[in-house]
Amino acid sequence: MKSLKTLSLLILLYFPATLFAQNLPPANSLYVVTSCFLNEGIGFSQALEEARGRYTNTESSPNQVFFRRPIAGTNNAPNQFYRVVSWDNMQHWNQAIIDGNLSPTDLYVCENQNRRFQSTRVVGSNRDTAYEDTEVAYVQARNCEVNPGVSLSEVYTRVNRAVSEGQSERNADKTVAQLSNLIFGGPDDDSAGLRVTIRRIGNSREGFAEFFDEFYLGTEDRISGSDLLSCRPTQMAESHVVHWKDRGI
């Protein structure tokens, strides 16, 4: 009888973990986000042009690299931008380190010791509309902390459903939405909870502006707060494609 109770307990413990694994799909990519600062006398366009000449299409080169310049944020320095690099996984990133594909530059400095590693999943029904026929688009991002007792799969399910429904109902929504989960790095505070970033990436600057007007300036209602997340104000950046392996850039 005791062995039967033990077996029943093991089954109860096992199945929730199995369901969790089934509800959360594999990450689409590993994002590595780094704060960078232009050196004195250097313009953003100079740094962008120089960076575009330094990435080659090799097996270990990143899938995508973006330079994102803050437009609406919190405490960003005038010379600050964010380098966002998309990899298949950590092994892919590590191979680039070994091969020396992350070369330094004299035009700007990046806080490589403070990188943030994020598992990133696409949510919603729009999958491939970001940066349509352009190398510049607006991006909005909101950093949130997952409330105690809430799983990442619950957040993914809720966000994926809400984004999918909204994209199907709007006339001008070609944004690609992402849910990123912070793994390494991040704020220096006492919180040990799960942290996520919810992004909206425009198909272009003009396309994002159309989405913005319909979403924020239209009749769609807003609900303050969430039972799953505690979020900070949404930020916005102008995102420039530096490197895109599949496009040959």
Account of the protein in words:
The protein has helices at residues 2-23, 44-52, 90-99, 152-169, 205-216, and strands at residues 29-38, 64-72, 80-87, 108-110, 116-123, 136-146, 176-184, 195-201, 229-231, 235-244. Strands 1-3-2-10-6-8-7-5 form an 8-stranded antiparallel beta barrel, surrounded by 4 helices. 29% of the residues lie in helices and 31% in strands. It has a single domain (26-247), classed as Alpha-Beta Plaits (2-Layer Sandwich). It contains 5 helices and 10 strands. β2 and β3 form a beta hairpin.
Give keywords:
alpha+beta, eight-stranded antiparallel β-barrel, single chain, 249 residues, 5 helices, Alpha-Beta Plaits
Write the layout of secondary structure elements.
Blueprint: H1 2-23, E1 29-38, H2 44-52, E2 64-72, E3 80-87, H3 90-99, E4 108-110, E5 116-123, E6 136-146, H4 152-169, E7 176-184, E8 195-201, H5 205-216, E9 229-231, E10 235-244
Antiparallel strand pairs: 1-3, 1-4, 1-5, 2-3, 2-10, 5-7, 6-8, 6-9, 6-10, 7-8
Summarize the structure.
By secondary structure, this protein is of the alpha+beta class.
What helical percentage do the residues reach? 25-40%
Question: What is the arithmetic mean of pLDDT?
Answer: 88
Terminal residue distance: 66 Å
Number of strands: 10
Largest sheet: 8 strands, antiparallel, barrel
Number of helices, where a helix is a run of at least 4 consecutive DSSP H or I residues: 5
Please give the order of strands in the largest beta sheet.
1-3-2-10-6-8-7-5
> What overall form do the CA principal axes indicate?
globular
CATH topology: Alpha-Beta Plaits
- Multimer state: single chain
| CATH class bucket | Alpha Beta
Number of domains: 1
Strand content: 25-35%
- Derived from helix and strand composition plus strand pairing, the structural class reads alpha+beta
Roughly how many Å is the radius of gyration?
20 Å
Pattern of helices and strands: HEHEEHEEEHEEHEE
